[in-house]
Amino acid sequence: MDRNPLSAALWAAVSAVLLGLLAFAGFLFAMIFGRFLELNLYYCSFVLIAALGVAAIGLALPFRKPRRFTLLGALALLLAWAVALCSCIGYNAYLDSIIVVDNSNIDTSLYLAFRPESQIPRLKKEASLRFRQGDDLPAVDGAAAFFPLYSAFVEATYPSDIPALNHPDSPYQYHNTVRGYERLIYGETDILFAFAPDAQQKELADLEGVEFEFIPLGLEGFVFFTNVKNPVDDLTAEQIRRIYAGEITDWKELGGEDTKILPYQRNSGSGSQTALVEFMGETPLMKAPGELVNSLMWGIIEEVADYHNHRGAMGFSFRQYADGIVQNRNIKLFRVNGVTPTVENVQNGTYPILMPFYMVLRKGAHTREVNAFLDWARSEEGQTLVKAAGYAPAWSDRADA
Q1: CB count in 10 Å sphere of residue 11
Q2: Residue 102, pLDDT above cutoff 50
Q3: Which of 45, 152, 332, 389 could form a disulfide with 120 if both were Cys (CB 3.0 to 4.6 A apart)?
């Protein structure tokens, strides 16, 4: 006997509400179940699909042909499980192989370890230090300017089958300066390749009871740049300080066009902003307007390169990053005190603005593997890679402790 149409409609409405409630309950159960067992959330889809399937089949039973519907429902449930299973397997295979990249400031895909096409420097023979599977591999991280260098260190000394860059289980990480110092302070990183920390990073370390240890690794040129259309090519270190103090405000004061100088700055805590503060010394650094502060180093380069919208702009960076990694041909590096910031002039010490960079670690956080890595990086082999990457080695006459 056919069901009354009104009763059928009412039952359909009630069924829809019940199905929604059961689906929500299944979702909550799946999330709690997955969280308790620390499962990937994609595996929780099995539980959710089961809840939906059972709910749908159960609500269909009062209808006229439950057997047929139950069979179709079971087949649909199996199909949904199969799709979920394939998705989970595929997704987790993707996670194992993907390069999880924080791509701020640098295209890390060009400088990955264990890639034949990578642009990192390499030794001509196997490194004297080779870690093995099972060793407590030091977790390394660093600033954008040093990613190619410490990628070369990783390739030279680590097993080639370590998890990919930024994988949660990988000792091979890239989070740039600000996040890198945070990870070091909280013990998520063993060795950070970076310039010295700023006041805020030191304050955070003090709050957490952490002392830094600095192992000098090399020297890098701190450079200033402008658009290639700017006729000014040469500045003195004192002129640069006066620009960033707000005392020189127009390019005509420096022999250029009658154009306002737009001196860009970085965000507090970034390696290049910390270098600028150090470079200024006793000269007070002016507070930059919000539109002249960029959180990314490549962002300043892009702003300065856009002459149409940012005529008169200038910025700062590190020589290898600006000239070796980014290579934006719409900017030019200033000669400082008449010296061009070339690799040769950085390495022979004639370029006047050189900044030491370090392997930074938590004081006392030494292991056998960490010590071996630090010693190797300071050895002739490690310093050969430092020089090949475009920096002045730590044992240069100009290196500072």
Answers
A1: 15
A2: no
A3: 152
